[in-house]
Design goal:
Layout: H1 12-31, H2 35-48, E1 52-53, E2 66-71, E3 75-80, E4 90-96, E5 101-112, E6 115-123, E7 136-143, E8 149-154, H3 181-184, E9 192-195, H4 212-225, E10 235-241, E11 246-248, E12 254-257, H5 260-275, E13 282-288, H6 305-316, H7 322-330, E14 333-337, E15 340-341, E16 363-366, E17 370-371, H8 382-394, E18 399-401, E19 411-412, H9 416-420, E20 425-430, E21 432-434, E22 441-444, H10 445-461
Length: about 450
Amino acid sequence: MDRENVWKSYTSEQQDQLNQVNEKYKACLDAGKTERECVKLAKEEAEKAGYVSLEEAKAPLKAGDKIYAVGMDKSIALFQIGNQPLEAGMNILGAHIDSPRIDVKQNPLYENEEFAYLDTHYYGGIKKYQWVTLPLALHGVVVKKDGTVIEVNIGEKSEDPVFVITDLLVHLAAKQMEKKAGAVIEGEKLDLLFGSRPLEQAEDLEKEEKEAVKKNVLRILEEYYHMEEEDFVSAELEIVPAGSARDCGIDRSMILAYGQDDRVCAFTSLFAMLDTEAPERTACCILVDKEEIGSVGATGMHSRFFENVIAELVALEGQESELKVRRTLQNSRMLSSDVSAAYDPMYAEVFEKRSSAFFAKGLVFNKFTGSRGKNGSNDANAEYLARIRRAMDQDQVAYQFAELGKVDAGGGGTIAYIMANYGMEVIDSGVAVLSMHAPWEVTSKADVYEAYKGYMAFLKNM
């Protein structure tokens, strides 16, 4: 069924609101290029909006209380207590804040023919050839043995140096060009060019320094970051595209930025959560790590972080009970907020047009995800879909239903099936993205705005 391009329906007031949401969104993309940065930003915004940490929350909980909990600085859950008891269930917005990138290994620094490199391991499903010759930045933390945490952010300011992964010149690339796309650039070739200037020799030294370029790099790291080579072992450093989110298109109708999968859903969910007041059911927004590699580990959705926080809230409500925790989770309703593949006419052969997500046609719902026969999918119930439609229509949200490409073309998954294990109603929803999983992705400003509106409607109307 055809949906109208939503740009045609906006009033001047709505266009002003759209621009405000998108400017705020771009600022968040620039401030949150890693999961740690996203959690830090979300925590700061939550505290401005009156949220207190779980440790500071006081019993008994009452309607209107605003609470957040942080998991290892890589996941965060926010709650606004509703008029109904927790046991009646929550309205949950869930998204992930990790994105495909390249990680620095634990013993990374080496010299090869007077070039200094950082050895790397790519993270998530990326096309490796897309990362070569781009200006890159280094974000993350270095934790010293005494517990001191050093934040690293190099390559974003105009005066900063940037980094690069080199490629073979086309004049010598005859054999390389014969390879399949997945092998044109191998994982072990994604090492970051880090320096090329040798350490200056002291005048009284006759012998030339070995690995002088590497030693000069270590001198700089010590001078600016008080960091020794062994400190790489307890560091988490992520290589991401350098540069800010930008308006895209001569009409400024789109946004070009790194990490919009899935931060376009995470930040619009956060905006909706912070702007929600006096919900009937407890409102929740959870932003988690590790979705791009299976939602594993202590900061992924498979962990007990969320469940443990719910248990703490039930206890603060004054009725500590494992059964009440189970009822709270089972009676909840969730939007698993993750991006969809936007129909791209340049690659129309992999899309089934009647079931595709289109730019500027609103928030996308996916009844199911998975791949080839719905493998690994959550499949939302028809009754829940009817509730969703009613909630969106009530607030005049533009929305569409879609699948991820043709049946046998591929597929993907989200955190939906994990939360559905609790017995709660879950459906995937999000924003259509062009060039998904590329270093630079494209979204429609109209869809960003409709996602924000849709998430607000869900928290209020469900």
